């Protein structure tokens, strides 16, 4: 949403719109955003976006031709942060796991031959 670059509120930075849910009557839109940084920065950015909602709605009304311009409601999308945290957790588990014999393809132990 290139419109986000027009917001002059210093609280709004490092924001990515992940997806938007629009109600069937086109009167409301839930805008899910991901914010780089900690939870405090995310909440601060969310307040900045809510403060800028009227400005954003006017910009959207200039770009789309509909009877109503949706009222914007912003929500933090934790999906990206959750997947990063899960990846870190899995990497830690793999690092702490002792090396299993037979997992190394170069090892002689991994190739077994039938006894005749």
From TrEMBL:
Location of this chain's protein in the cell: Cytoplasm
GO biological process: maturation of SSU-rRNA
InterPro entries in the cross-refs: KH_dom-like_a/b, RbfA, RbfA_dom_sf
Keyword terms: Cytoplasm, Ribosome biogenesis
Chain ranges passing through the membrane: none
Chain positions covered by the region annotation Disordered: 92-116
Biased composition (Acidic residues): 105-116
GO MF annotation terms: ribosomal small subunit binding
Main subcellular location: cytoplasm
GO cellular component: cytosol
Pfam families tied to this protein: RBFA (PF02033)
Role description: One of several proteins that assist in the late maturation steps of the functional core of the 30S ribosomal subunit. Associates with free 30S ribosomal subunits (but not with 30S subunits that are part of 70S ribosomes or polysomes). Required for efficient processing of 16S rRNA. May interact with the 5'-terminal helix region of 16S rRNA.
Self-association state and partner proteins as the record states: Monomer. Binds 30S ribosomal subunits, but not 50S ribosomal subunits or 70S ribosomes.
Protein family (similarity comment): Belongs to the RbfA family.
Name under which the protein is recorded: Ribosome-binding factor A
Species name: Posidoniimonas corsicana
